[in-house]
Specification:
468 residues; mainly beta; globular; disordered N terminus
């Protein structure tokens, strides 16, 4: 290992990929029913919020208390479940050589995993209410074209669905569209998507950015070692609508699509050289922001007419709150924390692995070591900073929220349930019983966790929450 590389990594230099975990796919908010459908990583527009139903505070796998069902899933994946109606979908990569190794925790090893053998890339369709497997579909079989990190998988990206089709990305092994019966509609080869470490290009870590479904189009962000690009495809055929070249280092973030009130839809992307916004229809650049962490993972989140972007590797760990209507180059000068496009920012307290969460009037940013910061979302005022757990486990799964509660899950499978608000209050800690790297989905008050080898559904016994 290059000692200079090793010494530069104050945080595990790698785990963006779990941005699959942190990574997102989106459909139009008008097309999905908030609280019922969870059509992408972190739900509608990657917000991570489900409304209208009572959600659980405590559960117990051993006794079965508040556990709706558990289902085994063969293979290894960091992709999150997605839900439409009563359908739940997950992806997986199954190694022909047997169970794949996975090394979790807080470490800075940049090495690739030693498993270059054949993989089966699969899509699984479950009944959301019962856990019954409706079908598995193999979409690819063969040796992967890039290697993965020891903390990564060959199935990092979260699929996306719009009630008609499922779009699943397996990085260099292709982008696939299937219908709800599992029939393949189309396949698109996007080439070799090598998102390894730019300082040590031989260290291949796998691909993690998830596809985005919006208004009959698929958005893909492919920031790689050479030839980075953002593209929009026709969701019915896979044909390319437009492609915009990006002068960008490898990233593991998923874009977010959002239509401002009275405005045209925009695509928001994280990056190191190019955080920014693109016109959804044409691919034209709308605004650009340089700087921050040099291994971007979290997905941009839109709330209160601001776009929240964070990253935290290298010398900086910023949080940026960018005005939705920003234009041009809005990069901050060294001594600036705001300008015409940036409402507020902080150079510290940003998140490395996890996508931030705006819930109520607060912004929550959790770091890979479990340190949680709560800000006033409008002003950036810090309400509190505290640590979840004892600092001995990593946190790669992004937080989600429902029913006044926020759920943060450690890599060891401990789910910390936090009361929303300006003062820290821990309500419970629940154990999932095995490693957990992906971000949970929420539907009708039930949380769906994808662990190392299972999907686990947990929910309060009550039904819909009474509003008012």
């Amino acid at each position: 290992m290059n000692p200079m590389v090793s010494c530069s990594m104050k945080r595990p230099a790698i785990f963006w990929l779990v941005s699959a975990l942190t990574t997102a796919s989106v459909v139009s908010g008008q097309a999905a029913r908030n609280g019922i459908d969870w059509p992408s990583y972190r739900g509608i527009e990657a917000a991570g919020i489900a409304a209208g139903f009572e959600a659980p505070t405590e559960w117990d796998l051993e006794s079965g208390s508040n556990v709706r069902w558990q289902a085994d899933v063969e293979g290894l994946a960091h992709s999150s479940p997605v839900i439409w109606g009563d359908s739940l979908f997950v992806t997986s990569a199954v190694a022909s050589a047997g169970a794949a190794d996975l090394k979790v925790g807080l470490y800075g090893d940049i090495d690739s995993a030693d498993d270059d053998g054949e993989q089966r890339c699969e899509l699984h369709h479950f009944d959301k209410r019962t856990g019954e497997l409706r079908w598995p579909r193999e979409v690819f079989e063969g040796p992967p074209r890039t290697r993965r990190h020891t903390k990564s998988t060959h199935a990092n990206p979260t699929p996306a669905t719009d009630g008609k089709r499922i779009i699943a990305s397996f990085g260099s092994e292709g982008l696939y569209a299937c219908d709800y019966e599992g029939n393949r509609l189309w396949h698109r080869d996007l080439g070799v998507l090598d998102s390894g470490y730019y300082i040590a290009p031989g260290a291949q870590w796998g691909f993690a950015s998830s596809p985005v479904l919006y208004d009959g189009k698929v958005v893909v962000q492919c920031d790689i070692q050479k030839g980075s690009f953002l593209a929009v495809l026709d969701a019915s055929t896979g044909a390319e609508v437009w492609r915009a070249a990006r002068d960008e280092l490898p990233t593991w973030s998923t874009p977010t699509v959002h239509a401002p009130d009275g405005g045209a839809p925009l695509i928001f992307v994280n990056g190191y050289r190019h955080i920014g916004a693109y016109d959804f229809a044409s691919g034209g650049e709308v605004w650009k922001l340089k700087g921050g962490g040099d291994i971007p993972v979290p997905t941009p989140v839109v709330a209160k007419d601001l776009v929240y972007v964070t990253n935290a590797h290298g010398r900086m760990a910023p949080v940026y709150a960018v005005r939705v209507g920003a234009k041009g180059d809005i990069s901050l000068e060294t001594d600036q924390t705001s300008n015409s496009g940036v409402a507020w920012s902080t150079k510290r307290d940003g998140g490395y692995m996890q996508t931030p969460l705006v819930y109520g009037d607060e912004l929550y940013v959790c770091r890979d070591n479990g340190v949680l910061s709560c800000f006033d979302a409008a002003t950036g005022e810090l309400h509190y900073k505290t640590r979840l757990g004892q600092g001995r486990t990593g946190f790669s799964s992004s937080g989600v929220a429902a029913d006044g509660k926020i759920y943060f899950t450690s890599e060891e499978g401990e789910v910390y349930v936090i009361a929303a608000g300006t003062e820290f209050r821990q309500l419970a800690v629940n154990d999932l019983g095995e490693v957990h790297m992906s971000t949970p989905a929420i539907s009708e008050g039930v949380l769906y966790f994808r662990t190392r080898g299972r999907v686990i559904a947990v929910g309060a016994s009550a039904g819909p929450k009474r509003e008012g």
